[in-house]
Design goal:
The complex is a heterodimer of chains A (302) and B (533). Chain A has 302 residues and is of the alpha+beta class. Chain A has two domains: 192 residues, Multidrug efflux transporter AcrB transmembrane domain (Multidrug efflux transporter AcrB transmembrane fold); 78 residues, Alpha-Beta Plaits (2-Layer Sandwich), CATH 3.30.70. Chain A contains nine helices and six strands, in the order αβαβαββαβααβααα. In chain A, the strands form two sheets. Chain A has a four-stranded antiparallel beta sheet with strand order 3-4-2-5. In chain A, a hairpin with a 4-residue loop joins β3 and β4. In chain A, α5 packs antiparallel against α6, α5 packs parallel to α7 and α6 packs antiparallel against α7. The longest helix of chain A has 33 residues. Chain B has 533 residues and is α+β, with helices and mostly antiparallel strands. Chain B folds into three domains: 213 residues, Multidrug efflux transporter AcrB transmembrane fold, CATH 1.20.1640.10; 83 residues, 2-Layer Sandwich (Alpha-Beta Plaits); 157 residues, Gyrase A, domain 2 (2-Layer Sandwich). Chain B is 54% helix and 22% strand. Chain B has 14 helices and 19 strands. In chain B, the strands form five sheets. Chain B has a six-stranded mixed beta sheet. In chain B, strands 7-8-2-18 form a four-stranded antiparallel beta sheet. Chain B has a four-stranded antiparallel beta sheet with strand order 3-4-6-5. Classes of the chains: A alpha+beta (302), B alpha+beta (533). The interface between A and B is large, with 73 and 73 residues.
Chain lengths: 302, 533
């Protein structure tokens, strides 16, 4: 069985301008969304604060939970439904004094709902210092991984390949973050982990194409770079789509069956896999061509 | 690459069996004794998010430790200078942990400098101003000494907390330093988190001070605190209403005896009301001091102060030479037990603040395990089905590699006693999707070569060799990303990076090495004419 017939000859390079425009639009939308929202919906990992996940025997009304928390000053927290019969309460930094918080929440809930009709499943309290720390580490991790990739690809291929690869990665990360911003989904540590995974996976994808381009430029020295790239992308299309497909299947499973805790993580991966595949085909490789046009590489030996 | 199929097959089997070997203890909880002797000790550890438990990050207030050191030095210096008859004025401890004093003339200055050189090598002059012959000197601790104190404080805190947690009875706690002044504590399976936090965070400084009965407490409250005395709060429980109130009490500031001289502390039940209290016993030196203090102060009140709060201030009826005393204060059984624990373990050298707390209840943990398991199984089945449909027999080969993958990955995790977290399980699921990548690469390449007209043998040969470099490059880059994830991540995220990294390496091995064995077997040994791919 074959999804992509061999001998396909789609002019990917020809579609370069369209793809670039489309991507640019997506990137602008993403950045605009972040600016309009005034930043991202930071989870407590970055903003500090407290998060409590409570399971009730019966579906509680958000209002009843809110009024239960009135007495301990948490009525301004964000309270959301979470899974079945569960509720997640997010309290901001100032109202979350870690020392007695769990005890006070317990007391408030007992008073309002009676002991035994609820269960505190999870508590997370992050002080401001730790929040800042984690933010810093997250940004460093992403930036350094980009740099790491740049160096490795420059070494294994050529610098212009690395440029294409890294730009594709930056493109992927921005658009994924944009998706989170547009849907106002919570952005915490596990999402950063997802971003790093997307970086790792997307470059994986991109290198498959690069490898073929490298092989073909060696084999067909007379061919123009544009044609070589086109040929290479077409030849690897089957592989690229397929590898993305298997990962996509797996992430969809995680999305539906993985549970509420990694639900958003799976969502990030879903967006990332799709965008990553797109960027490997339409962005990374054509950039090599564009780079060549801007700064022609005289010794095309590699 | 070893040419012989047999040798390669044996190698692959060895790896598979090794994987099972290391995995066994994790899967079977109660093995017959004979097996236990031969199987490795290590199991896969479940992260806190899977087994439930509490994760705390504490910050030790090392500044306070330095403050206390300066306080002690200041008092010490005062006595030393008076001893050596060096004239000085206004010695006091100021902000920024400095001690300032005035030296009225050059003679005292010289004498002062001698005392400093001989007895206080850790202190240096920060600033000195001379005005009208008076020199005002400001002293501070040398940086080297400051760092020493910081390190010592952390070490002591670690030890004390370990002692306390030990006595609390938690299996497999983890207490490790982080950075310069932080301590990370992991308590798996803990139920009463509030009690644990109190136990860990309590400074537990026990002091014995005399009650100042010469001055009036009301006077002091108005602002006239007599020299050498301080106001403290006495915590009393009203038996009928059950409410606790704070009553101010005036104490003499000087600490006569501290909890450092305790030999043991036990919970006992009082005869009168059946109330729990803590019976303490001093060590030899402490008993002697206690004897002297009680002897000198019969009929006076001795306050027992814990972390600045007075628990009780009984009247000393007579000299106590047995070195035993009681700390009463209307405790619940749990409170008494915990007090005994912290007294036995010792006081923390400096206060600690909780920076981060993450607690997962056991039911959520179990839920997460179930969901993780289901995702893995369903994901694996779907992928395997797809491989068979798309690649037919070659797909089956890839599936065999996949199963071996999972076994070896889990075995490796067990061998390294790695921690499996929920994101870690997600990592395994992801690896299932990505592992097939490598197989897809090889199989697609083989298809191409077959289309180009090569024989099955040649096609397989070329397929593997060409694909190898690609697989290497693409996986190394993913590994780079996983490395950074590992570096910056904490807890669950680290677990994800670990399973991802191990997964990538193992899947490279199975895709390149193991599947090749199977293909080669069919092509060379069974001499099949076409490859079903």
């Amino acid at each position: 069985m074959e999804l992509i017939k061999s001998g396909s000859n789609i002019n990917f390079v020809g579609k370069m301008k369209m793809a670039f425009t489309f991507s640019l639009a997506m990137i602008i939308i993403s950045i605009a969304s972040v600016i309009l929202h005034g930043g991202l919906n930071y989870g407590i990992d970055f903003a500090g604060g407290a998060l409590v996940q409570i399971k009730f025997h019966q579906e509680p009304s958000i209002d009843s939970v809110r009024s239960a928390f009135k007495n301990i000053g948490l009525e301004n927290s964000i309270i959301q439904s979470y899974g079945s019969n569960e509720v997640v309460v997010r309290a901001a930094e100032s109202s979350a004094d870690p020392k007695g918080l769990t005890g006070r929440i317990d007391d408030a809930l007992t008073t309002a709902f009676g002991k035994g009709s609820y269960e505190i499943r999870r508590v997370e309290v992050v002080g401001p210092k730790v929040g800042k720390d984690l933010t810093r580490k997250a940004i460093l991790a992403i930036v350094f991984s980009w740099i790491g990739m740049l160096i490795y690809i420059s070494w294994r291929f050529e610098f212009r390949y690395a440029v294409g690869g890294i730009l594709a990665l930056v493109h992927d990360v921005i658009i994924t973050i944009g998706a989170f911003s547009i849907l106002n989904k919570e952005f915490d540590l596990t999402i950063v982990a997802a971003l790093l995974t997307i970086i790792g996976y997307s470059i994986n994808d991109t290198i498959i194409v690069f490898d073929r381009i490298r092989e073909n430029t060696r084999k067909n020295v007379k061919q123009s770079l544009a044609d070589t790239i086109n040929m290479s992308v077409n030849q690897t299309l089957s592989r690229t789509i397929l590898t993305s497909l298997t990962v996509f299947i797996v992430v969809v499973v995680l999305f539906f069956f993985g549970g509420a805790v990694i639900h958003d993580f799976a969502f990030a991966l879903l967006v990332g896999v799709v965008v990553g595949t797109y960027s490997s085909i339409f962005i990374a490789s054509p950039i090599i061509l564009a780079w060549e046009d801007i700064r022609p590489n005289i010794k095309r030996k590699k | 690459m070893l040419k012989s199929i047999k040798i390669r097959a044996v190698l692959a089997c060895i790896v598979l069996i090794a994987g099972l070997f290391f995995l066994a203890p994790s899967l079977m909880s109660s093995l017959p004794d004979l097996w236990q002797k031969y199987l490795p000790r290590d199991k896969i550890h479940l992260g806190l998010d899977l087994q439930g438990g509490m994760h705390l990050v504490l910050e030790v207030d090392t500044d306070k430790a330095i403050e206390s050191a300066m306080e002690r030095t200041s008092n010490d210096l005062k006595e030393a200078l008076m001893d050596k008859k060096v004239r000085f004025r206004h010695i006091e401890r100021t902000k920024n942990n400095t001690i300032s004093l005035e030296l009225p003339d050059s003679a005292s200055r010289a004498a002062f400098e001698k005392v400093m050189k001989d007895h206080y090598p850790d202190i240096e002059t920060a600033t000195s101003q001379i005005r009208d012959g008076n020199e005002t000197v400001s002293l501070k601790l040398k940086d080297k000494r400051k760092n020493e104190i910081k390190k010592l404080t952390i070490e002591q805190s670690l030890e004390t907390i370990r002692n306390r947690v030990d006595q609390f009875g938690i299996s497999e706690p983890e207490i490790i330093p982080q950075g310069e002044d932080r301590i990370v504590i992991q308590l798996p399976g803990i139920k009463d988190t509030t009690r644990a936090k109190n136990l860990i965070g309590k400074t537990a400084l026990l002091e014995f001070k005399l009650v100042d009965e010469e001055h009036s407490i009301d006077d002091a409250l108005k602002g006239n605190v007599p020299d050498g005395s301080i106001i403290a709060n006495e915590n009393r429980l009203d038996r009928q209403s059950g409410r606790r109130t704070n009553i101010p009490i005036l104490l003499k500031n000087k600490t006569l005896l501290t909890g450092g001289y305790l030999e043991s502390a036990q919970v006992k039940i009082g005869d009168r009301f059946g109330e729990p209290y803590v019976g303490i016993k001093f060590n030899a030196q402490g008993a002697k001091d206690f004897d002297r203090i009680t002897g000198e102060n019969v009929k006076k009140r001795l306050a027992i102060v814990l972390d600045g709060i007075v628990h009780s201030a009984p009247v000393i009826q007579e000299r106590i030479s047995g070195g035993e005393a009681q700390i009463t204060g209307s405790f619940t059984m749990d409170e008494a037990k915990d007090l005994a624990i912290v007294l036995r373990a010792g006081a923390l050298p400096a206060p600690v603040h909780i920076l981060e707390e993450r607690t997962v209840g056991p039911s959520l943990g179990q839920d997460s395990i179930d969901k993780g398991l289901w995702s893995t199984i369903i994901g694996a089945i779907l992928v395997m089905l797809f491989m068979i449909v798309y690649y037919k027999f070659s797909g089956v080969v890839a599936n065999v590699a996949l199963i071996m993958n999972i076994v070896v990955i889990l075995g490796t995790l067990a061998a390294f006693s790695a921690t499996l977290t929920l994101p870690g399980i997600a990592g395994i699921v992801l690896v299932i999707g990505m592992a097939v990548d490598a197989n897809v690469l090889i199989l697609e390449r083989i298809r191409e070569e077959l289309r180009a007209g090569k024989t099955p043998r040649a096609a397989i040969e070329t397929g593997y060799s060409r694909a190898f470099l690609t697989i290497l490059d693409s996986n190394v880059t993913t590994l780079i990303a996983a490395l950074f994830l590992f570096g910056f991540g904490t807890g669950p995220v680290k677990g994800f990076a670990v399973t991802l990294s191990i997964g990538i390496v193992v899947s490279m091995f199975t895709a390149i090495f193991v599947t090749r064995i199977i293909f080669d077997h069919f092509v060379w040994n069974r001499k099949i004419q076409t490859v079903s791919v």
